[in-house]
Amino acid sequence: MAMAGRRQVLIGLGGALVAGAAAGTWRVTRMPQTAQTPWLSLNRPVADPRLDAFRHAILAPNPHNRQPWLIRLEGSDAAVLSCDLDKRLPQTDPFDRQITIGFGTFIELAAIAASKRGLRLEVEPFPDGEPQPRLDHRPVARLRFISDGAPGPDPLARAIALRRTNRQTYRPLPPGLLEQIGGEGMQASADPALLAQVRKLTVAAITREMETHQAHMESVRLMRIGHREVDANPDGLALTGPLIEGTSLLGLTNRESLADPASTSFRLGLEDLQKVHASVPAVLWLVTPDNSRLAQLAAGRRYARTCLRAAAAGAAMHPMSQALQEYPAMADLYTEARQLLGAQSSQCVQMLSRVGMASPVIPSARYPLEAHLRR
Ligand SMILES: Cc1cc2nc3c(=O)[nH]c(=O)nc-3n(C[C@H](O)[C@H](O)[C@H](O)COP(=O)(O)O)c2cc1C
User: Fold this and answer.
1) Mind listing the pLDDT tens digit for each residue in 217-256?
2) N or C, which end of the chain has less CB nearby within 10 Å?
3) Residue 4 pLDDT > 80
4) What is the mean predicted confidence (pLDDT) over 286-302?
């Protein structure tokens, strides 16, 4: 996913930016507005506990922020989740593995939010069968909100609105925090020898992705350049901040320049991403016994909980998925990642994330809940 820290990407165009800022200060300082509303309206009372759970669930981390979740309410206590098949990422996620993980994160956040209302979420995964090798129109899960035997409120609930994917450079975690964030099947390490190998791998993999035309174009097409584009299409890869606003105002940042390996934007972007992917003071990773759809959903649920533990502790996380992706140009780095992270035969490395301390970032864009509801 080629988007990290674009703030810095265009520093080399600083002279032009000064002129651009002078021409339109009001515009270069603007940040997305409506795209952030779903994060900011969680205190509004909502009668139907399912809608309350789902307005939290749409804040889940998900690949390329595609938000592929379709929700059909059923009866008075159930809902069926399915995938908006147009929101998949065929180049970098050819078997919809990561998209399915993004359903696991959604379900976990729904379960945590439901616990605040004294409800337990019963999940029936893939009730009409497990779609392979890609997802199809069949439901991903049927959910029931049940009032008896509900556990108490999950303490991670308060972290849902605080969680972000943070693509800044990182500082080390304070002692003891890594152990607190890992666990529940998420492996964690700050071992210098392992980190040196991880950094080499993640930098090589982000470079490979950007230099693989089709894979990079999948990201470029989903870039939202500046606050207007983000508010108009609150998904995908948001490029915001004064530098982006200023250089796009001047016509220096656009999809063509970001796509062109010969351009300054591309080169500075790649250098920035390499720096970010080498900023790994500690690492978290998740291996499942197999790569079934159930394992992918379970991985998403665990990943979501890990993110919430990190957010609650004031730490930052950022998945670096490139080396885990199953497309031919990545094959050698995919094998290297499996070896490095100890995946045996049928096991699958589902997530690899850096973790550390970082400056805060704004919430990412979201469509409103209504955009996901189907009759
Ligand atoms: C399965 C999965 C893989 C992801 N891989 C990456 C990645 O390689 N690089 C990255 O910057 N973000 C990655 N993300 C994070 C998403 O881009 C992020 O969740 C999304 O843009 C929404 O932003 P938010 O997490 O701040 O709400 C991944 C998320 C998931 C669930």
Assistant:
1) 999 999 999 999 999 999 999 998 888 888 888 888 899 9
2) C
3) no
4) 98
User: Is any atom of ligand 1 closer than 6 Å to the C-beta of 165?
Assistant: yes
Q: 38 in ligand 1 pocket by Cβ < 6 Å?
A: no
Is residue 343 helix, strand or coil? Answer: coil
DSSP state of 191: -
With a 6 Å cutoff on the Cβ, whether 166 touches ligand 1 is no
CA 21 to centroid of ligand 1, rounded, Å: 31
Distance of CA 18 from the midpoint of ligand 1 (Å): 32
Compute, in angstroms, the gap from residue 98 CA to the centroid of ligand 1. 10
In this predicted structure, the answer to whether residue 7 has a pLDDT above a threshold of 70 is: no
Q: What is the pLDDT of residues 54-67, one digit of tens each?
A: 999 999 999 999 99
Give per-residue pLDDT as tens, 307-337: 999 999 999 999 999 999 999 999 999 999 9
**Which residue segments constitute the domains of the chain, with CATH numbers given?**
1-375 (3.40.109.10)
In angstroms, the Cα distances linking 294 to 212, 213, 306, 338, 375 are 30, 32, 18, 20, 26
- Give the per-residue pLDDT at 189: 98
- Residue 61 Cβ inside 6 Å of ligand 1? The answer reads yes
Closest ligand 1 atom, residue 3 Cα: 11
Distance CA(206)–CA(167), nearest Å, equals 13
- Cα of 300 vs its chain's centroid, Å: 11
Residue 223, CA distances (Å) to 65, 94, 98, 183, 367 in order = 11, 20, 19, 34, 16
**Counting atoms of ligand 1 from 1, which one is nearest the CA of 321?**
8
Q: Which mutation among 95, 103, 321, 348 tests ligand 1's pocket best, with the greatest number of atoms within 8 A of CB?
A: 321
pTM: 0.94
Using CA atoms of 365, 369, 372, 375 in order, give the dihedral in degrees to the nearest 10: -170
pLDDT of residue 113: 97
